[in-house]
C-alpha cells in the first residue's frame, strides 16, 4: 500500500530537519515547522518495522479538527493544513514536560496501580479500584519529554523544584489541561465515546503559552465506547476501546514490551491491514464523518508538492 515510511524533502529556506518516532519535521526560515505525520507506528517507545497505511492522515486530520475546536480555550501553533498528512505551524519553544491527564484508571496508571503503587506522579489513588474505573476526579500525571527512549513520570513538585517549568507557567498549564480535557470529554460524549486519558504539549511563542503538536488522537488519547461501559465494568470485562492500546495488547500477547532482548513479532499483511482499519474506524467515530481516502497517486510527490505550495503562499 501507498504508505509514508519516511520523507527526505528539501524545501526552499529549509533550516533544519528532525525525524521523530512518527513525524518528520522541517524547519523553514527558523520561523515555521512543516510537520509530516508519517505512517510509522511506535509502541513502548519503539518504532515498529512496518508503516500503517493512512495512519498519519487519520492522526493529522483528527488533530486539525480538535485544535480548531479548542482555539477559544488556548491559541495553538497551526497556520495551515495543506495536505491530509501535513500541518504547518509556527515554531515555538516547547515546555519540557507533557501534560498527561487521566479520568479513568487505565493503561500505564493501571499497570502501576496493579503493581501495588497508590501514588502516580504525586497524585494519590484510593484503594479498591479496578482497571478502567472512573477516578473520583481527573488527575494530571506529567511526564518528562525524552528526545530518545522512554518518557519518565514526574510530579508537579519535582517539576517546580528542578525549575523545568516556572510555577506561574505550570499553574496556567494545569488550567489549560483541565479545560481542554473537559472540552474533549464533551465532544467525545456527543459521539458516544468516553475520553479516558490524553496528553497535551505546550510551548511559548512571543512570551505566550500556546498548544502545540496533536491533540485527542488515538496515539495521544484513549477512548472507550460509552454504550455498555458500566455493564462491562460490573462484569469485570475488558472495555471496548478506540486507541492505540490494541496495538500494545497485540505486542504484549506476542511477547514484546520494548524490553532488552525482546523482538518485535512479525507484522503480517493481515496485521497491517487490521491496524489500518482500526485507525480509520476510530477516525469515523471521533470525527463523526466518513474517512476520505486520498487519490492513489505517489503519496510522497503529493506531500512535497502541497507543502511547497503552502510555504510559497506564506510569503515569509
TrEMBL record:
HAMAP family hit by this protein: SAICAR_synth (MF_00137)
Enzymatic reactions: 5-amino-1-(5-phospho-D-ribosyl)imidazole-4-carboxylate + L-aspartate + ATP = (2S)-2-[5-amino-1-(5-phospho-beta-D-ribosyl)imidazole-4-carboxamido]succinate + ADP + phosphate + 2 H(+)
EC number: 6.3.2.6
TM regions (residue ranges): none
Family stated for the protein in its record: Belongs to the SAICAR synthetase family.
Residue ranges occupied by any SAICAR synthetase/ADE2 N-terminal domain in the UniProt entry: 17-255
This protein's name: Phosphoribosylaminoimidazole-succinocarboxamide synthase
Enzyme class of the recorded protein, top EC level: ligase
Gene: purC
Entry keyword set: ATP-binding, Ligase, Nucleotide-binding, Purine biosynthesis
Pfam families registered for this protein in UniProt: SAICAR_synt
UniProt pathway annotation: Purine metabolism; IMP biosynthesis via de novo pathway; 5-amino-1-(5-phospho-D-ribosyl)imidazole-4-carboxamide from 5-amino-1-(5-phospho-D-ribosyl)imidazole-4-carboxylate: step 1/2
